[in-house]
Amino acid sequence: MSHSFSSQMEGTLIVRQEVLELLPKIEALIFDIDGVLVDASESYRLAVCEAVKFFVEREMNWVIDATPLTPDEVDMFKRAGGFNNDWDLTQAAVLFLLFKSLKHGVKRVSTLRKLRPSLEEFLAEVSAEGGGLNNAEKFVVDNLELRQRRDLARLWKRRLIVQLAQEFYAGRKWCPRLFGFEPQYVDIESGFLERERTLIDLSLLPEDMKMGILTGRAKRETVLALERIGLIARIPEDFWLTDDYPIRKPDPKAIAVLMDKLEATTAIYVGDTVDDLKMVNDYKATAAPNSPSVLVCMTLTGPNGERNRTLFLEQGADIIATDVNALLSYLKHFRKPKE
To answer: pTM of the full predicted structure?
Structure first.
């Protein structure tokens, strides 16, 4: 799909020509959190990797002579689509490793890494079916014999896998508040969440625009993130859609619900992953003619960073920004303060 982009690169922004005249009319901004407002590359990604390693080492007693899952491989799951939720992603990563182990009868990580399918091959299959944990499980079950499926059902302890990731993420300090339990397995004080870095410059936020949050984080995690960023007082809870809401990312109806809450007719959704882009594209494709109009700005601060630029262009992003601040600076330039 070819799009004509404005020839002028506004600093660190690419804007599709067709949307230029819409920008001065934008009433609302809707933000994703991870990869947009905060850099979570040192938190969730590491929590996922550590949880996978802990599980196969302690629970499965495998020989860990190589890394079971790397942060780059976490990004590959994100690119495949449907793994917006990091707890789902952790379960899928363990599922993939168990699948290979059962298929080949191997419990040594370095050997498993050399055997097929590779993670690329596995994720290509899952992505072709629409991505996500359910399709990953379907692929695995379809490719195992009955006896192996029974073993998988016994070994794939989904609740434990999620709890491990949450314990690495939140540590003793935050687990009770975020997840309602004291850590049982992982003995770390504050968790990887304290490595999260704020990406947004709050001084650039337009005073006269409505703002909402549409995130794959659950509500408690959203509260903590917005407190740490300094946005909690600025965006009322009525204008959040979190992962525990009945309609959630990446369902395009989530956009419609939030636009209704914001009472806005035009907005920009700021995201960072293929799922974010697909959600807005699906919203545009299914919206009634008089529905609110939503543009999508993709930032390059999420998983894969700059490497996503071409992918986002090909998949029809309206705006691509090096970070959220590039977009906010750009919008400032159109919006004269009201007298």
So the answer is: 0.91
